[in-house]
Amino acid sequence: MSQPRVAVLRFPGTLDHESAARAVEGVGAEPVFTHHEDAALPDGTVAVVIPGGFSYGDHLRPGALASRTPIMGAVKAHAAGGGRVLGICNGFQILCESGLLPGVLRPNASLSFICRQAELEVADSGTAWTGGRAEGETLSIPFKHHDGAWFGDPGSTRVVLRYRGENPNGSIDKIAGISNLAGNVMGLMPHPEEAQDPLLGSVDGRVLFAALVA
Amino acid sequence: MTLVVVTVMPKKGVLDPQGQAVQGALQHMGFGDVSDVRVGKRIELEIGGSDPAGQATKMCEDLLANNLIEDYSVEVPG
To answer: By residue range, what is the domain housing residue A140?
Structure first.
């Protein structure tokens, strides 16, 4: 039986696609790098990952230019049909700018780039993205960003992950990751593709990739 | 071609950490009378065809400003 295909999008300035592709392989799926000017997803795509980086150099607003590219039309159609989409860091910013998720990611309140391990609290166990973890359980996943403060109406979305302890970036309600109300589109600032191997301290990122093919 | 100037500013009431940082620096430099600073951007567009201001407004709605956090204005200096 062939492996399910997961499209891994690449824009000019995308950085984390190799790590994301390895994480896709780790859950038994085939990653297919997909170009921003393509108007369609690869044949047989079951899910989409939008990896992190600095698409279009973060010009205008992070994610703003990438969200208006041809491939995002195909991603919107995929999501409208119930297909799963995972946006990580810049991918989360792109999902918000495209309207697939509500809100927007603003500069960190400190105006500093922050890079460290985050302890994330599962705030909603009802989506596929946390792999059956109960509300209140912790996922340890690193983050690295300058524009990670989610701003919007928490009532317009499902808050899936929150930062534990001190609010690192000024995000409303300490939000680290949200999904749409239907639960098939997920965005988060932390990097689950970097929490895949015990050598790196945590494998808690695997559940988010497992959800792509669950 | 018509020059159209778009100004995009953080909405009032939305935290503007860049403006606050600039204000802090100005006060440290002795400009103590500054009570508020907000930092936005100016975008200059050369537009052909009819209704350049209307076209620029559509561009603001579709891309140039994010209406959750930003206000914009469109001006045709003449």
So the answer is: 5-210
Question: How far apart (Å, rounded) are the C-alpha atoms in residues B70 and B75?
Answer: 17
List the CATH number of the domain containing B49. 3.30.1280.10
- The closest CB to that of A64, out of B17, B21, B63, belongs to B63
Q: Which structural domain, as residue segments, surrounds residue B24?
A: 2-75
pLDDT digits (tens, 9 = 90+) for B5-64: 999 999 998 888 899 999 999 999 999 999 999 999 999 999 999 999 999 999 999 999
CATH label of the domain that carries residue A175: 3.40.50.880
In chain A, which residues have their Cβ closer than 8 Å to the Cβ of B21? 111
Token output for A129: 């993205």
- The pTM of the full predicted model, rounded to 2 decimals, is 0.96
Q: Are strands A114-122 and A104-106 parallel, antiparallel or unpaired?
A: unpaired
Across the A/B interface, how many CB contacts are shorter than 8 Å?
30
The count of domains in chain A is 1
The three-state secondary structure class of A77 is helix
Looking only at the bridges linking them, the beta strands covering A104-106 and A149-151 are antiparallel
- Give the nearest partner residue to A104 out of B18, B63, B66, using CB atoms: B66
